[in-house]
Design a protein that fits this description.
GO terms for molecular function: phosphatidylcholine lysophospholipase activity. It contains seven helices and eight strands, in the order ββααβββαβααβαβα. The protein has 229 residues and is α/β, with parallel strands linked by helices. It has a single domain, classed as SGNH hydrolase (Rossmann fold), CATH 3.40.50.1110. It is globular and about 45 Å long.
Length: 229
């Protein structure tokens, strides 16, 4: 199934927007991390509706909608994000962006500030949404990987500054979950690499109550008899 305009698949579930570049779209492996994430959500009995203007992936990806744009940098996502959020009203946003800023050597030193601005625009347009911000995955080229690590090093402080201002923003350490051995072409993950991303997103989502709604059974960490905090 090729990329194209969204057919707006919907099951009435919690609206989740996978947001980013080709790594969200699933270049080399159509559907990318969204396949493994969808399957984990289904196994957990979560009812989730992926949303976005784009559409691609295989049949075992139960909902093909997303907002992954191959080749796009942070500024290009930022130029469109407010309209997308108004159109698709996500409850939860999964953001992995910055790889193309590094690959294109596009004002890399100011990329963290551009990301901070993008996050501000997301939280302004969707103030009740949980926004999960991932560090970008490794790159095989050593110079580019060094730039990616420098970019990633700024993310914890950016996310914490949003949290300190009362925003629902969460850091996902995606970079540490993959190695260059998980890349098919030095940039994009293999199917196994994408599944590692899926596992990281799923764990992050499960750690934030409400970001996925309710599964079929309560988490083992929640006990009705626990003392109130």
């Amino acid at each position: 199934m090729g990329a194209g305009a969204a057919s707006a698949e919907s099951n009435g579930g919690v609206r989740v927007m996978p947001l980013g570049d080709s790594i969200t779209e699933g270049t080399q492996v159509p559907g990318g991390y969204r396949i493994g994430l969808w399957q984990r959500l289904a196994a957990g009995r979560y009812t989730v509706d992926f949303v976005g203007s784009q559409y691609n992936g295989p049949g075992n990806l139960g909902d093909h909608d997303h907002e992954g744009h191959p080749g796009w940098r942070i500024d290009q996502i930022d130029a469109n994000i407010t309209g997308w959020l108004r159109s698709y009203t996500p409850r939860t946003v999964l953001l992995h962006i910055g790889t193309n800023d590094v690959l294109q050597n596009y004002n890399v030193s100011s990329a963290p500030q551009r990301l901070s601005t993008l996050i501000d625009h997301i939280t302004s347009a969707a103030p009740n949404a949980d926004v999960f911000v991932a560090t970008i995955i490794p790159l095989s080229n050593s110079g580019q990987e060094s730039a990616a690590r420098t970019f990633n090093a700024a993310l914890p402080g950016i996310v914490q500054s949003k949290v300190n201002n009362g925003k629902h923003v969460h850091l996902v350490d995606m970079h540490s979950k993959l190695t260059t051995g998980d890349l098919i072409d030095g940039i994009h993950p293999t199917a196994g690499g994408y599944d590692k991303m899926a596992a990281a997103w799923y764990a992050a989502l499960q750690s934030v109550p409400g970001s996925l709604g309710q599964g079929s059974s309560p988490s083992p960490s929640v006990s009705p008899s626990s003392s109130p905090s």
